Amino acid sequence: MHCLVIPFPTQGHINPMLQFSKRLQHKGIEITLAPTLFTYKKSMQELISSITIEPISDGYDDVNGLFSAKSIETYLESYQKVGSQNLSQLIEKLKSKGNPIDCVIYDSFMPWILDVAKKFGLVSAVFFTMSCAVENIFYHIQQKELKLPVEGHHVLLPGLPPLVPSDLPSFVNDLGSYPPFLKMLVDQFSNIQEADWILCNTIYELEKHEVDWITERLPLRTIGPTIPSMYVDKRLENDKSYGLTMYKPKTNVCMKWLSDCADGSVVYVSFGSMAELKEEQMKEIAYGLKNSNHNFLWIVRESEEPKIPKDCLENITREKGLVVTWCPQLDVLSHKAIGCFMTHCGWNSTLEALSLGVPMVAIPIWTDQWTNAKYVMDIWEMGIKAQSNEKGVVEQEVVEHCIKEVMEGERGKENRRNATKWRELTIKAMDEGGSSDRNINEFVAKLVV
């Protein structure tokens, strides 16, 4: 049995699908991963993996890949046109070599891949890389059950807890901010009724109500968290790496520095591989960290470094801080020195913190991060969302307060207890007979029949 896996070409989408591919391979399924040619050349040529890689063109093979496109619409149109042809050729090539594809697993951002799979009579599985709650919101929009713009102070939708507009993804709450992204996210559901499988990178126990509601309408299965096995159930020996990083981590520097810190004393700060913060926000975070009087490890990508004044950077790191351009996040989050994680609440980072039992200070920036932050604070109760001012900036006093609340206060103790509970549930879900493991086994069993 042979699956062709096609991820959307960003790190936060490739890694979950690559990790899921490892799980399938461990259960006896042959995998061919088809990233874009640009992604392969930039980040995957040195990838050490037993998974076969067959890159395809999206029409943006040089310079900056999808980031060199004039707009996301231009890019998606190109990928659909060029990618459809290249994907068809790849399927035909593998068949002619006596190694035909049986199933196509594709990122939900690219619904056109379903048409290619159907053309060849292949089993199709759409893969959601966001939470079930967030997918439910976009499904409600696609079904016209949530009218835009959102009116009123409360959002009451079946399959979701009571929300306020600011808990919704930014493209929904701030309508008109990024219309092409909103369209792309709503279009995930354009032909979903025709897919054979719908796989979601979440944990059933984490979103029971949300999953139960959507599975009454769509054949969705939870298969997460898609993080390396050695950090969760340890069933895939030596599986410690996602295998792909767009940036080079300063591993030795980070781990040596953490080893000199007391247990639970460090605030780990990272806003992911893509989020861009305002200069004013960077400065407020810098002084909030300093004034909290806690050790901190802050990841600031090279492109973001100029936003922090040099004298400010030297001042805040003099005694208690380390600022580096990138780090091995799973190794850092699982280190005993880490006391909390200040995060943008991207879904991968949120799942990693949940899986490793680390309380969070949430500073969402855009897209699904607002909804994830709502769940972190109010549903899972393992962190606090920092409130921003009227300009959308979280001020240094708020940063300081949130850190102290999670690291020192009574609320922090409750957050840590809940974080431990979610970690245990996560391990159980991925372990033999757990909810995610059962769903993956069901998927594999149906493929091999």
UniProtKB/TrEMBL annotation:
Keywords attached to this Swiss-Prot or TrEMBL record, sorted alphabetically, are: Glycosyltransferase, Transferase
Q: What is this protein called?
A: Glycosyltransferase
* Catalytic EC class: transferase
Q: EC number(s) per UniProt?
A: 2.4.1.-
Organism, by scientific name, is Datura stramonium
Sequence similarity: Belongs to the UDP-glycosyltransferase family.
Concerning PROSITE patterns, the annotation shows: UDPGT
